[in-house]
Batch of 4 targets.
Target 1
Amino acid sequence: MRRISKLTRVAVGVASLGLVATACGGTSGDSGDSDSKDRGVAIAYDVGGKGDQSFNDAAYAGLTKAKDEFGYTTADIEPTEGETDADKEQRLVSLAKQGYNPVIGVGFAYGPALKAAAAKYPDTTFGIVDSVVEGKNVASLVFAEEQASYLAGVAAAKATKSDVVGFVGGVDIPLIHKFEAGYKQGVEDTKPGVRVLSQYLTQTAEEGGFSSPDKGKAAAEGQIEKKADVVYQAAGLSGQGVIEAAAKAKVWAIGVDSDQYKQAALAPYKNYILTSALKDVGGAVYALSKSVQDDKPLNGTQTFDLKVNGVGLSEANPEYAKVPGLKAAVDKAKEGINDGSIKVKTE
């Protein structure tokens, strides 16, 4: 199986998964002891699992796209509470042994486990979302979250009437700092003087920062009490609580990763989801799957940024276009990011 080492960007359509594939061959697993050689992509979910209406569900959309187009067997595995790196490694090894290829760990927490599993199965392609792991058979699928968050900040600054907006991060880690940094910069560049209230739900993922809607709801309610009338969340499953609180108070929420305005589970609150900062995890999962299907598996760091439509901002809510100056300001910001005149901070 031939590997590509120089490709660093894959053009994908944000949230649309509108890629066309024509390959129809089988995939290969480990050359030594895999149980099958005709199975396709397998994903191992991050904290919160399937049904978070956000990060994990976006990965599942990519898996479904690949399954439908290539007609092969797929697998998606839930995390377990309090699991160790050894548990994660065993899950990935089991998938590779069964012949799935590629095997993708959804979330930075899979880093150590994926590195170990990839070393054991050198003929299987592994992928990891939101982290960089070295390995000849590893594709690191990373995103310019700060760019999408900058656009969310522009939107928040245009939509606020109280000149107070909020940010709720799931866990206090560098990855979520990127969301906060971009958002704050977008707000400041668009409307100086707007106050940004920031709160992280927990210090570690084990404490439930990405999986506790009640924590998200309480944080958003606190910010709304302090006059925030737009609240942006980067909190996984916990973000559902943020959106619920915003809808109850009749203020704007900004979703994350998936277009949360379109999520069925959030339909009762959709009128208050102004927009979502999009991160095309599904497109990345599909792109890696297609590369293996085409016998040209990606490896190395694959960066999905605004220029290749790997991140973006949703316009699904009709109210988005009705906020004075919002769309024009976001479009201008996109141009600035793409031409380099706007440098978005990551911390």
Note: The first helix runs from residue 55 to 70.
Target 2
Amino acid sequence: MEHHDWFKKSIPLIASENITSPAVDEACASDFSHRYAEGWSGQRVYAGCTYIDQIEDICMELAKEYYKCIHADVRPVSGVVANLVMYNAFTSDNNGKMCCMSIVRGGHISHGPRFAKSGREIYGTAGTTRGINVEYLAFDNDEMNLDIDASAKIIREFEPELVLFGGSVFLFPHPVKELGEVAKEVGAYVGYDAAHVSGLIGSGYFQDPLREGADAMTMSTHKTLPGPQHGTLVSNREDLIDTLRSCAFPALLSNHHLHNVAGLAITFAEMLEFGKDYHKNVIENAKALGQALHERGLKVLMEHKGFTESHQIVVDITEFEKTIGLGGDIERLLEKANIIINRNLLPYDISQGRHYQNPGGLRIGTSEITRLGMGKSEMVDIAELIKKLVIDKESPNKIKDEVIDFRKEFQEIHYCFQKSSKAYEYLKFY
């Protein structure tokens, strides 16, 4: 309860988090939370799955409608597990090869380190090492995106089995079409980790990987897609469906957290109904917050491109190193005032001797505050509160009181079904 009370009095700006609706919360607290349903719907290892199968079928159909695809697997228990399913399907057993974005330039930890093991090694012969040999794509620091020409050269020389797009710092669409064509030249599959932007994509924003050449798209389901922590994999390749299914179960999954599948079904239904408006406002709020922070003297990256096309912005705070500190220091300072953000590596941090524990950047997201009903005017208010702490050096205790007062008007969750809605009738496990 202390955690709940704290967050009701805070400004949550973590780009990899969101808030679930009361309907999703109820589903996640259902009897499903302690049941088993190994295998594919209709082909279970366990009895007692009659209604579990119905809900999982609904969830898959809603996912296929949202992403306009022919295959959706909602069994992965996280985005990382969804990635491992894709790695298993698209790379060979012994020292497979993958190109992706490096962690220090925004790639996810499941995209590296240089030798990124998949779940496949647990089935290997004792004493052998199986995994994926990773070669990083080229990155343009000035554009905060992949360098197309330099990355194409890497793909042609390395000849990977999988070229993976997506990342954790994800301001602009990746060149899936351009580099996907190069991947096909060398016989590689094309994957897309949509963990951060899956909601934006499903609602018709950011980009459309499956139409741009991706063979599969993976995601976690609790970021711009405001569901429970879980994972999903989607594809439009009918010839790959059996392989993708078997690379999930039994290769990587036993039971797959059925209560979260129920919650995810409601999330997809909510986003099919409200996602267009919600995600439009998420992106507009991110741009507005970037502009407001910029106007108050903070160095928000990518001003020349409108700061972002997604839910997140990145701030370079290295100018405060000698007065306040770097990312870890400022993260802790803001947290004392109930402003919750996370430190983040800048593309050039490692070359300048900085560490991920105290990097030169902050990553700020607008998904959760938008779902709490905040709009562009509130982005100005939030920027002013951050300025008071970082630039004006006002007391965190004083600003904390202002944050608590600010949050009083934003307690209701928006863009979701109420208990009287048709979604409650449609999802009949209530």
Note: Residues 113-129 have pLDDT under 50 and may be disordered.
Target 3
Amino acid sequence: MRYRSAAGRWVLVATVLGSSLAFIDGTVVNIALPAIGRDLGADAAGLQWTVNGYALSLAALILLGGSLGDRYGRKRVFAVGVAWFAAASLLCGVAPTTELLVGARVLQGIGGALLTPGALAILEASFVPGDRSRAIGAWSGLGGIGGALGPFLGGWLVEVADWRLIFLINVPIAALVLVVTARHVPESRNPAAARELDVTGVLTGAAGLGGLTYGFTAWPAQGPGNPAVLASLAVGALGMAGFVVAEHRSRHPMLPLDLFRSRAFTGANLVTFLVYAALGGVFFLVVLNLQVVAGFSPLAGGLALLPITVLMLLLSARAGGLARRIGPRIPMTAGPLVCAAALVWLSRVGPAASYPADVLPPVIVFGLGLSLLVAPLTATALGALDDAHAGVASGVNNAVARAAGLLAVAILPLAAGIGTGDLTDPAALAPTYRAATLICAGLMVAGSALALALVPDRLPRDMPREGVAARGQKGRMTR
């Protein structure tokens, strides 16, 4: 069924709130890292794993989440993911040690892997083609702002109460999502989806991401010649190669490789990888730098990024509509360039930085760039394939984004020269932050170039269709 009325708005509410759980927890922890380090005695690797434990399971299993939704019902899998996420959040909130916190974060990532692709697939299946770009734009603006809202929420909770509340607050939100989902979200699935699970693909993909993440995270402290580092990187490389082979040979692959015959789908996911690698590094390091180097309080550090939230809320739906009118290539090319300029500006934020002069202007520019980019990027990744593959397309795009952010958090401190330094030491973090932010700007420029080269001017699914007969029409339609 397709919805244009109040039913569609309830679907949007459920998917936005559900997605926000995963989005916020992808960034909210960053602002609390200094407090977690002090409270639990975590070292630099422990702090990285507090972020990466969540990102690893999310990235490794999100394709599985999309496949399960296509097979067994997107509403059902979405609801299971929300409930799982809430239970894991409760465990995070009471964790007494770094090790147990990281373990609970891994469980959180599993819940996120189940709910995140389902949210987008539900949207894709619930709106007529003519309304999808605006719906996804609204989802990007309302749900995607969770990533920017996270540091503000985390800073406020850390400063006025305790870092554990950043996890415990998920429980009542998840309960609300479950109620709205049960009452208002329609069920959808892919009738042609196979019933068999791609176990080999799940295991090889998890081994690949896990090996690379552990190796790069351990590298600064243990050195590149350490046997554990070398073995982990080798396992990661073999796992990723094994994943490609497994998906090529599987009768029911979790990631059908023939999807990448679509130039638009391939281009959108390559741009996603570069852009979200940059975003993963930015949201990990900017909030740390503002506290550790610039001397901001947790609340002030979180508030510093609030303009991004406001701009995405106001502009993302409009950017989705613009991309529908003029095509996705221009906004997907211009958006990363605007973000890159903002990151070069942000790289200058150092000790005793002034918020009005040094932080606010580049944050505004960065928010404008993200607002222009995110909705067209998401709509292109999903719109390049037909409805039957909505769950897989969503899962692939989310997996690419999460894997990019995961590897960025593991690799960027190493690439920027942290060595054996401490991420909570101003002298060690300041040069790392500057170098890493410039690397992220370079990733944004590369993403812009790929969008220009690979993203088409117009997606076939963006063409308006009237009735069943119009579904067979080919070619472009003039507006």
Note: Residues 6-185+254-460 form a domain with the Growth Hormone; Chain: A; fold (CATH 1.20.1250.20).
Target 4
Amino acid sequence: MRALVAAFRIGFAHVFAYRAEAAIQLFSALIVAALNLSLWTVATHERSEIGGVPSGDMLAYVVVAWTGVAVIATRVNEDLGRRIRDGQVAADLLRPGSLQAFLYARDLGRAGAAAILQAAPLLFACALFVPVRWPSPAAWPLWAVSVVLGHAVNFGLSFLVGMAAIKLGNVTGLSHLKGTLVSVFSGALIPVQLYGEGLQSILRFLPFPMLAHAPARVFLERDEHVGLTLLTQAGWALGLWLVGAWIWRRAVATLTVAGG
């Protein structure tokens, strides 16, 4: 447990150690948020609702979903893939404890720092220009739990992608594919409720809406079954974790580093 706490602190401190990079990422996120808001402001102009959602709530959805991206975003797939490709994973395997748990704890620390340095300022800046309907006090902790679970789901997906380096050698292309799927189907860029019924039915059986769509609905208090949503997020996070742990144990047995 002390090792995991140390890993969390490392991930948290790493973001604060490179504050200039965090500021650049925040500036980039503000630009994308401004573009999205401009687009959806035009789309909702003179419309009382869009996709069955009131226009004001749709704008708030866009703000909250994009804010959550700063927290759930992770580069674990690239980090793990690089460590496997370069052979650094050999040193990781000599350490006691689970590499999967270590990577998760470290990235959770990064997510916590990103929430402070990026998500909170982004939400505040958008609130100055967008009439966001703030939820009741009871919804805030539920939203925070949903965002943390969304991060856990994204970590599970990223860990699986990173492990592909054992067979592929390089996961750059697969990482780009994963990033595209997350951007399109998580609700971060395009609200899930705007997709056709057929695609929405398919997405109900995929983890992507658990990343941004579910937390945004919890924030807006438009989810009538919040408890079930949180359980579904937790189920996906646990399921992906167990699958990742099982594949990792089998893959390590055949892992070759530096020809040995």
Note: The chain has twelve helices and two strands.
